[in-house]
Structure formats: C-alpha cells, structure tokens
Amino acid sequence: MAVLELARVSKHFGAIQALIDVSLRIEPGEVVGLMGDNGAGKSTLVKIVAGNYPPSDGTVMIEGRTVAFHKPADARGEGIEIVYQDLALCDNLTAAENVYLGRELTRGFGPVKVLDYRAMFKRAAELFAELKSETRPRDLVRRMSGGQRQAVAIARTRLADPKIVLMDEPTAAISVRQIAEVLNLIRRLREHGIAVVLISHRMPDVFAVADRIVVLRRGVKVADKPIAHSSPEEVTGLITGAIETA
Fold this sequence. Notes:
The chain is an alpha/beta fold. The chain is built from eight helices and twelve strands. It has a domain at 4-90 and 159-240: Rossmann fold (3-Layer(aba) Sandwich), CATH 3.40.50. It is globular. The two termini are 25 Å apart. Residues 4-243 form the ABC transporter domain.
C-alpha cells in the first residue's frame, strides 16, 4: 500500500494555477526525486503534503486513508516530516538539544519538572549511530559542517518515527564530501523503510540516490518513471520543455 498518494491535486492562488491535476504514489522506503525549474510547482506540492496549504481540488491519502491537513502539525501527526533548506537549527545549542527542540524530555514529580538531558543525549547518540553519522550529541551546531547539520535535521525527523521525509535542496551549498554524507543519510532512511521525497536541482545527486523521478513543469506532472529508465539528458529536456512528456 502506498504510504502517500495524491489524486488529481490542483492548487490555485487567485488566477495563478500553481498545480494542475497532479497524481502521485509513493511507496514505503522509496526515494523519489522531485525536479523542475523555478515556478514548476515543486514547493507548492511539498507544502500541500506538509500541511502548509490545503489543495484547491483533489485528495491526499496516507496509507489508503483520505486526510485533510489544516496545519503542519496535522501532517506531522500522520508521520510526515520536512527538512527545509535552511534546516531551522539553533547555532548556539548542541546537536542533541537541536534534535529535541520543541520536543524536550523532562523528568520530575508533580509540577516540578526539569529537562532530562541524559535521556535526550542518549537517544540522540542512538539516532546518529543509526544514521552512521559522525555527529556527536554534545557538538555545538555552530561548529558543524553542512553534512553534520543535515544529520542533526534528519535525526530530528527520526524522533517522530516518520513514514515520509520531505527534503528541500539538502545538498545545496555544501562540499562534495558533505554531499556524499547527505546522500548516505538518505540511504539510511530508505533502509529503515522511510520514504523520502528529494527536491533538488542537482541532477547527479538525484540519479545517485533516487528510485524514481518525478518532473513538474508549469504546475503539470510531465514525467513519473523509474530512475533506471531515464537519463540526465531526458530530465533536462523535460524541465526545459524540449521534451513534452516521458
């Protein structure tokens, strides 16, 4: 059963049609590369799945159930997590404190509660070990590389035991070595049966890690096929319009 299914989803903002009849199925543990030029509708689609926007038409289904998200918390409650391009990390906090930001563990009795740093640091260490990341719970985020920061953001999504993780340009503006680290993090999520939607302009990264590729152009889905049956040249043609559909 598909973990996520969009059925003829459209979204308009006044006279602007951002998405037009987009249907999409994502299976558990599948990595889907979502590509398209600026203004193609990628961000709108992701924001609908993440609960930021309701669709104007069409339905969203999680594991066969029709759902209606009114806010991002509704999507998180259904197992959908998102890692934004800016990561939304606090530089002055440790890796573990960022993993638990807004979800802190406490201990104590009655009205007197204190933060349970020991439990948070222990669980954060387990998450980094699962992701095979060298990031340590007590490391300060401001001293981290781009790849380590991605590990913190991805570990934060793992706290909620997600069904699907949406990743917005995770390899933008980081080094080649750090890109390899982030792609390995995506592979770890797949190994745990978590579906990933990878939004990226970087063709080599998508072809390195995705099982399937979906291309949007001017709000319309123009391709949805296994990555093994496509090529960077075909995708470039689909994005630019040199190739109509595939």
